[in-house]
Amino acid sequence: MQPPRWLQDAVRRVPVWLIYLGTALWLGGLFAMALFGRLGVDPVAELIAQYGKGALNMLIAGLAITPLRRFTGLNLLRFRRAVGLSAFFILCAHLAVFAVLDLQSLSRLGVEIAERPFITIGMLGFVLLIPLALTSTDRAIRKMGRNWTKLHRLTYVVILLGWLHYEWQVRGEVVEPLTYLTIILILLGLRFVPRKRAPLHKNVSL
Amino acid sequence: APVFARDEANTLDQIRSYNNFYEFGFQKEDPARNAGQMVTDNWQIEVSGLVDNPGTYTLDELIGGLTVEERIYRLRCVEAWSMIIPWNGIELADVLARIGVQDGARYVAFETTLQPDNMPNAGAYGMDFPYVEALRLDEALHPLTILATGIYDEPLANQNGAPIRLVVPWKYGFKSIKSIIRISLLAEQPPTTWQRIDSHEYGFYANVNPTVNHPRWSQASERPVGAGLFGGRRDTLMFNGYDEVAPLYAGMDLRVDY
């Protein structure tokens, strides 16, 4: 299967730095809105929620790139690092707002991490992303070879932890978390679809 | 009890724009957007159970002539945020006197209107409407407990529970049931909505208590809504600062009866 020509051409013309720029503008834009009172009356909670969901969306986008190429032929591989790193940056912002603007104290943060299972889970996901962010340079990819691929499969764990962290703080709502889970499980499941073997008698003509 | 001046309270705009009223949606801004369709004309309240004067009352029949006071209370949500709201209301005890509580009544149960055609989230999966709440009779009779009909001398906006709602300032906000259409006096403790959805997380009493955490988050502190991006948190007080209700719970283990 091949995507339409114009789509492939269009995608090829998009520079990778646009992902970083978009992420930075989105993070900064939301923060500015919060600062100027345009994000509702509880801007801290709103920022935490939006940054958190943004990071989850970005991780999901990263998870979609490989199956998208395999099943539709659309190749977005060259954006994958930018998407993954952007997810990490958004997560840093999410955590920073929680620690600095919401809790405003390291001791409170310690208590939250130790005593609130959903925050423990969220922190674990964040910590697991750190080595992935650190090994996202060309040099690390070259040096680590197949170990790099193995290490970066941690994103599968991280995204499941991220979903759990999100689902556990939801009150009342059921449909949205389940929709997220379904999408994540489909994207993970597609990786286990066996590849078709090349036909053995390709050149036999009747 | 904590005493607030009006200028310490949240603005009317804040109070009307940040609400939990799940029949209208799960997000804080949903009720302001969607509650306008709720019909509040010719409001009637059915009074039943162990009362001398059961029946269907108009608002005027139920509360007309009772003294309306301004009560500036802190509202502490179980989600660990708080607001200060200048309610206008009457003491629930006065209403209970009017309907005549019979011997043997130990609980007061309340029910919120359910208008599926006017409430976009009324059929939400995982919820259980109509919303019901209840108090022990002595809690209901406490002078701090009011039925509110206004905020800042304006009638309640629909998203704030028009035309009449309960306000129990020492309990988490979800106890203060909105848009009441039914009041019953009962001998046995009735079910309440959040307890029914998840009794592990939400108890019948739901007293504000910084030492008993919600299973998923701390109740030790709260974010005052409206304090802005750098407003930070304040420590949550036992009974939300309304210490005078403590005798109601003498001898009870509030870790068990949460």
Please render the helix and strand layout as text.
The complex is a heterodimer of chains A (206) and B (258).
Chain A: H1 5-13, H2 17-35, H3 43-72, H4 80-103, H5 106-115, H6 117-134, H7 138-144, H8 146-152, H9 154-169, H10 175-189
Chain B: H1 12-17, H2 30-34, E1 44-49, E2 55-58, H3 59-63, E3 69-76, E4 81-91, H4 92-99, E5 107-112, E6 132-136, H5 137-141, E7 146-151, E8 154-155, E9 165-167, E10 180-186, H6 193-197, E11 221-224, E12 234-235
Parallel strand pairs in B: 1-10, 4-11
Antiparallel strand pairs in B: 1-2, 3-4, 4-7, 5-6, 5-10, 7-8, 7-9, 11-12
GO molecular function (chain A): electron transfer activity; FMN binding; heme binding; metal ion binding; oxidoreductase activity, acting on diphenols and related substances as donors
Family (chain A): Belongs to the MsrQ family.
InterPro entries (chain A): Fe3_Rdtase_TM_dom, MsrQ-like
Helicity range of chain B: 10-25%
The dominant shape of chain B is globular
What is the terminal-to-terminal distance of chain A? 26 Å
Average pLDDT over all residues of chain B: 96
Largest beta sheet of chain B, briefly?
Answer: 7 strands, mixed
The span between the termini of chain B is 21 Å
Task: Label the structural class of chain A.
Answer: mainly alpha
Provide the succession of SSEs of chain A: HHHHHHHHHH
Segments of chain B where pLDDT lies below 50 for 5+ residues? none
Shape of chain A: globular
- Biggest pleated-sheet summary of chain A: none
The total strand number of chain B stands at 12
**Estimated radius of gyration of chain A:** 20 Å
What is the ordering of alpha helices and beta strands of chain B?
Answer: HHEEHEEHEEHEEEEHEE
Q: Give me the number of helical elements of chain A.
A: 10
The number of strands of chain A is: 0
The oligomerization state is heterodimer
Q: Count the DSSP helices of chain B.
A: 6
Instruction: Estimate the mean pLDDT confidence of chain A.
Output: 92
Rg of chain B, please? 17 Å
Strand content of chain B: 15-25%
